[in-house]
Design goal:
The chain starts with a helix and ends with a strand. Helix content is 51%, strand content 15%. It is an alpha+beta fold and 425 residues long. The chain contains 13 helices and 12 strands.
Amino acid sequence: MVGASLFMVVVGGVVVSFLRFDEAERLSVMPGHLVSVAVAKLNETTSENRPQVLEELLQEVPDLKIELVGEEALINEMKVNRVDGFGPFTSGATLFGMRIEYVVGPRKLGTGLCPRVFFRLRDGSLVAAEWVIEPPPFPIRDLPFYMFFGFLGITFLGLMSWVAKGLVQPLSEMVASAQTFGERSTTPIPIAENGPNEIRVAARAFNRMQLRINEFVDKRTRMLAAISHDMGTPLTRLRLRLEFLEDSDIRNRSLEDLNIMEQQIEMALNFLRDGSSSEPVLRIDIPSLLQSLSDQYADLGFSIETRWQGRFTILARNAELTRAISNLIDNAIQYASAVEINAGLKGGRVWIDIIDHGPGIPESERERLQEPFERGDQARKVHQGTGFGLGLATSKTIVEAAAGSLELRETKGGGLTVRLQFPAA
């Protein structure tokens, strides 16, 4: 980029240098022609008639700066300005018996003034004339000049835009991928390895990192699932042995603890499976799903008030989504006597609110309770029916697998509202 920029600057400088003209060569033909004709006319005129001829010349050409001078004017000029000559004007004989006695350039007379030339006529008289210089329009004012530098500027901007895009676009893709990686899943989404060498190396390393993280998560999930599954066999044997024991308080409490362990294992297996189910993704009508859930809970003796506005659908796995919403309803029933479900469509997103008026969750605890195996009771004691801290985490995993989000809010008047949001299908 630096080399290309310097090249364009050098090209521009060379072109400007060729377009410029030396100050001594900027002589307009017509003004010089009029001066030469006037001097030649005075040279052919007798000394008695020269004042009258000069007056006629000045009337005809008012801009003509020429006058008859004496020897003193020449001597005084030569005393003040020691440099004799300017451009093509030098002292010496000319045509028709005339000669140039002395020339004073613009540098001595002042910026913007014309050179002053002293002519000796054939009869010895002196004429001082200002050789009017009207330089041709400087190239900066010409259309080709504007076109050239306009093209130069557009080329430079295009080059800078191309370079900036080559640098910024790969970095933007990397930032976007890093922000979303792990938020919905750890499935690698390779980014293009384009741009300068440093950017390509960073993109290649980022893609390898995604693969390693996904492989690590996959191995960990398989390991935990295998452990949970294998624990089922010894637990089954323990249950059989306890069943053959005589009825006693120790036997009953052991069976109760065994039931809790089996529930923990089953919930752990379900949690590990969520988000990676082989169930197909379908277009789900949310009002129909909510009404179906409401009817199911009504059959169990729980009244759930369900409201929605309009008809809307999302893309998700039906069984998993049903389980996610059921988990949230179960939590609400556990801590409150009444549950409400509201749903609607706004800004291209479907929202579902599961509302209760129970004790709620402090804002400082909401983020923690969405993590696996986190419960509201700080003592972390497992009681019958209190759960194992996987309800919210499981629902969150299922919702995020459907490109949705789960947020805990405070219900007006007290309680907890769980807001689910999904892209509308």
